[in-house]
Every structure is written in C-alpha cells, then in structure tokens.
Design brief:
alpha+beta; 4-stranded mixed beta sheet; 159 residues; 2 helices; rod-shaped
C-alpha cells in the first residue's frame, strides 16, 4: 500500500514539474505557427501589389487563416488592423507582423479560422490592399439568415 502511495506521489511530482515546460513549448509553437499565418497574409498582399495595378474591380485573392489548435494552453486570436497583423495569445507575449504594403482593414478578430478576401484598389487616391471577410463563410456559425436562405433555395451569392 505504501508503495502505491509513493508511486502516485512521485508520478504527480514528475507531471507537476514537466507541465510548465510543456505549456511553454506549446505557447512557443503556437506563436511560431500564428506568425507563419500572418506572414502568409502579408506576403499575399505584397504579391498582389507587385503583380497588379490598383483598379475598382482589380486584382483579388482569397486566403484562409487558422489559429493554432491549443492542447495544453488556452489558445489565442488574430487581431488584424490597418498597419498591424497581430497574434494575441491568452497568455504570453503578443506577436506582430508589419505588412510591407499599405493595407486597409476594418479591425478583424479571428478566433478560429477565416477566409479573407484581399483586393488591390485605390482608397482616397492611395493604392492599398483592402482585407475583408467574404459575405458567406461555409461551415461557420456566422452566416446571416439571408445567406442561409439563399443557399438553401439554390441561389448564388457573390463572395
């Protein structure tokens, strides 16, 4: 009986000492994955600018960004704004990526996955990449009733 109690106590001590290191490793991994996603967004915007001219119905690209899947930690979210693309974890330091091209983003917060539409256009005389969510995101709970009705009736929506 004493052996069992000692074995449980030793196992609990080992788990207790290794858990903070595992959490720290996951936070670092999530930060690296999130930074890669944000770098991909910034690179797509830069490529759009490099290969096209701004126009009202000009060049567009659609990408999907995903937050890292948390297992031991609490996860985080992307916060996208005009000049800053940020990863904000629940715990730990924020990570930011500064785009190399001017961007216009009406503050977006992404906590899971999101499709984003990038369009290279003129805004008040400046050539910018506008980033926004398409109207309908399939498979999410954020669809509007109008979008769901049109889809269920076989209608098409511009995305």
């Amino acid at each position: 009986m004493i052996r069992v109690v000692l074995a449980v106590a030793v196992a609990a001590a080992i788990v207790g000492t290794s858990l903070p290191a595992a959490e720290r490793a996951e936070r670092d991994r999530n930060a690296a994955l999130a930074t890669d996603e944000l770098d991909g967004l910034a690179t797509t915007a830069a490529t759009l600018v490099r290969r096209n001219d701004p126009a009202p119905d000009g060049a567009r690209a659609t990408i999907e960004i995903r937050t890292p899947e948390p297992t031991l930690t609490e996860g985080g979210r992307f916060v996208l704004d005009d000049e800053t693309l940020a990863w904000r974890p629940a715990r730990g330091p924020n990570r930011t990526v500064e785009p190399t091209v001017p961007m216009r983003i009406d503050r977006l917060v992404v906590a899971d996955r999101a499709r984003l539409r990038l369009s290279f256009e003129r805004d008040e005389g400046d050539a910018v990449v506008r980033v926004e969510r398409p109207n309908v995101e399939e498979g999410t709970r954020t669809q509007t009733a109008h979008a769901l009705a049109a889809l269920s009736l076989g209608g098409r929506l511009s995305v």
